[in-house]
Write a structure and sequence with these properties.
The structure holds two protein chains of two kinds.
Chain A (H helix, E strand, L loop, with lengths): L4 E3 L2 E5 L4 E6 L7 E6 L6 E6 L5 E4 L2 E5 L5 E6 L8 E9 L3 E4 L3 E6 L1
Parallel strand pairs in A: 2-11
Antiparallel strand pairs in A: 1-3, 3-8, 4-5, 4-9, 6-7, 7-8, 9-10, 9-11
Chain B lengths: L4 E3 L2 E4 L5 E6 L6 E8 L3 E9 L2 E5 L6 E5 L5 E5 L8 E8 L11 E2 L3 E5 L1
Parallel strand pairs in B: 2-11
Antiparallel strand pairs in B: 1-3, 3-8, 4-5, 4-9, 5-6, 7-8, 9-10, 9-11
Classes of the chains: A mainly beta, B mainly beta.
């Protein structure tokens, strides 16, 4: 069974602080995606990383795919209250299925 | 707004009952995916349909079934409901039918099912 472990499970920080969320697995994934989900809504795709070592930036968010394609990280610089939400990583698993991590709940206080 | 619609938004029913959840994908999207999100299991893939045919199956119970109709809308049928089936059920759609994890899945707002 391919599993993705996310850490931390919960993060509460002040506006302006930096943070990193991790997504780890013992399995290799052909690609990895990061989603953000707000209460009462479905997840929204933020980014897809495909190549080992790949780094993608989306404004204040930086995504990295590990060299071995087993792990990924999401770094947010100068967090804002609007960044509050549930962050999910998802890997393209065997059988053409997305495997999701349990998620990281981020709360940014103003 | 993702363009994916799901009805109903909320559903409250009793154990042993049967319910049907409906999903209309974005215009032009041929693939529909169903997911279950619960506090203890997280977001779990259930099943995928592409242009009316089942394409991939995940952790879907035998009590659950789905289909995609010629107009591409999809229905998820849950029967003999148990307390543990209480969860958020999401539908997502995408244009392509292969290579999940490369394309974009657009998620609907979900149906919250409560089994009492």
């Amino acid at each position: 069974t391919q599993l993705l472990e996310q850490s931390p499970q919960f993060l509460s920080i002040q506006e302006g602080e930096n943070l990193t969320v991790y997504c780890n697995s013992s399995s290799v994934f052909s690609s990895l995606q990061w989603y953000r989900q707000e209460p009462g809504e479905g997840p929204v795709l933020l980014v897809t990383v495909v190549t080992g070592g790949e780094v993608k930036k989306l404004k204040r968010l930086t995504f990295q795919f590990g060299d071995a394609r087993k792990d990924s990280s999401l770094h947010i610089t100068a967090a804002q209250p609007g960044d509050t939400g549930l962050y999910l990583c998802a890997g393209a698993g065997r059988g053409n299925k997305l495997v999701f991590g349990a998620g990281t709940i981020l709360r940014v206080k103003s | 707004d993702s363009g994916v619609t799901q009805t109903p938004k909320h559903l409250i029913t009793a154990t042993g009952q049967r319910v049907t959840l409906r999903c209309s994908p974005r215009s032009g999207d041929l693939s529909v995916y169903w997911y279950q999100q619960s506090l203890d299991q997280g977001l779990q893939f259930l099943i995928q349909y592409y242009n009316g045919e089942e394409r991939a199956k995940g952790n879907i119970l035998e009590r659950f079934s789905a289909q995609q109709f010629p107009d591409l809308h999809s229905e998820l049928n849950l029967s003999s409901l148990e307390l543990g089936d209480s969860a958020l059920y999401f539908c997502a759609s995408s244009v392509e039918g292969v290579a999940v994890g490369l394309g974009t899945q657009y998620f609907g707002p979900g149906t919250r099912l409560t089994v009492l």
